[in-house]
Design goal:
By secondary structure, this protein is an alpha/beta fold. The protein has nine helices and eight strands. It has a single domain, classed as Alpha-Beta Barrel (TIM Barrel), CATH 3.20.20. An eight-stranded parallel β-sheet has the order 1-2-3-4-5-6-7-8, with helices on both faces. Helix 6 links the parallel strand 6 and strand 7. Helix 3 runs parallel beside helix 4, helix 4 runs parallel beside helix 5 and helix 8 packs across helix 9.
């Protein structure tokens, strides 16, 4: 299995990282993709190693880190992001996106940052990884505005409606399916069931959003198995077949193969 979105480099894992990664390999995780929170995340990512897991880095600025007057100007962001993301070990641009949950004070700056991330992703031929919280219409509008046929990416932690999911797919986005699909009253499972599985990939968002039966605990890559099990049930597939399909999709998104 591939965990396509895990903040495994954060301090939440420092005390028992060896045990966490051992559990990941025993559960079948072979690759972990690490989305950035800010440019400092890249140095933290370099500290994660395991002989049986391949780690992949992303470069970007999380929307909650975007602050008016406290972030780079548009041109500076593009230059800095391009410099970091052009390296061969950067698999994707992100995570970027919009977040209106914590504050609506910096929406224009978040939108500008998202546009710059999309432009860099297109220029470098890499996927963009999108955070979205209470901002779906604006997020998809900007993706549509930026879409020139070369933009692709992932709607991380998909929790939209069927209509929003189909619009995202039409815009050449893939849907990151995480622990929320196991939540009884979230309704994500019913929506996901109506959308094409070949446009979905697995993720944890560790250390956040642990799936049932670990809900409320620190999430970790080994818990991807619970999400895979639930998604397999929704599509009436074996876990092995679900794993094969989502792994193939993830490799195509990030590596074109």
């Amino acid at each position: 299995m591939i965990d396509t979105h895990s903040h495994i480099y954060l301090k939440h894992f420092d005390k028992d990282i060896s045990e966490v990664l051992e559990r990941a390999t025993k559960s079948g995780v072979t690759d972990i993709y690490m989305p950035a929170i800010d440019f400092g995340s890249l140095d933290q990512m370099d500290k994660r190693h395991h002989p049986d897991i391949t780690f992949h880095k992303m470069a970007g600025i999380h929307p909650c880190e975007v602050r008016t007057g406290g972030t780079l100007s548009g041109d500076e962001l593009t230059e800095a992001l391009t410099l970091r993301s052009s390296k061969q070990d950067i698999a994707a641009i992100g995570e970027t996106g919009l977040d209106y949950y914590w504050s609506r004070d910096h929406i224009p700056t978040q939108m500008e940052s998202l546009r710059r991330h999309c432009e860099v992703a297109k220029n470098l031929g890499k996927p963009v990884v999108l955070h979205n919280r209470e901002s779906t219409p604006d997020l998809l509008d900007i993706v549509e505005e930026q879409q020139d046929g070369s933009l692709t990416g992932i709607w991380h932690c998909f929790n939209g409606s069927e209509e929003e999911g189909r619009r995202a797919i039409d815009l050449n986005l893939y849907l990151g399916i995480g622990g929320v699909v196991t939540f009884k009253n979230a309704g994500v499972d019913r929506v996901v069931q109506k959308l094409p599985l070949e446009r979905m990939i697995l993720e944890t968002d560790a250390p956040y959003l642990a799936p049932v039966p670990r809900r409320g605990k620190r999430n970790e890559p080994s818990y991807l198995a619970y999400t895979a099990q639930r998604l397999a049930e929704l599509f009436d597939l074996s876990v092995d077949e679900l794993d094969r399909i989502t792994t193939q999709t993830a490799r195509r998104i990030f590596h074109g193969s």
